[in-house]
Design brief:
Shape: elongated
Number of strands: 0
Distance between the termini: 55 Å
Number of helices: 3
Order of helices and strands: HHH
Strand content: under 5%
């Protein structure tokens, strides 16, 4: 385990919020960091999706049609 120096006010906020969620301070920090990293991945995906060119959409449509053309499984 490693100790990090944070201002007293921040430490108190972390401990308060962790207590409210029933987590240890490290668990709260981990969940916040996980959410932050996920948000960044989703933002990156959104940028890539918005930047897709016509060739990508042609391939997407071809695959979509191919998958949709499969017979229904009963």
């Amino acid at each position: 385990m490693t100790t990090i120096k944070v201002p007293t006010q921040l430490r108190d906020r972390i401990n308060r919020d962790a207590r409210e969620r029933g987590l240890p301070a490290a668990g709260l920090i981990e969940s916040l960091l996980d959410a932050y990293e996920r948000r960044r991945r989703m933002e990156s995906f959104g940028r890539a999706f918005r930047g897709a060119d016509a060739e990508y959409w042609d391939q997407f449509t071809s695959w979509d049609l191919a998958v949709g053309a499969l017979p229904d499984e009963a």
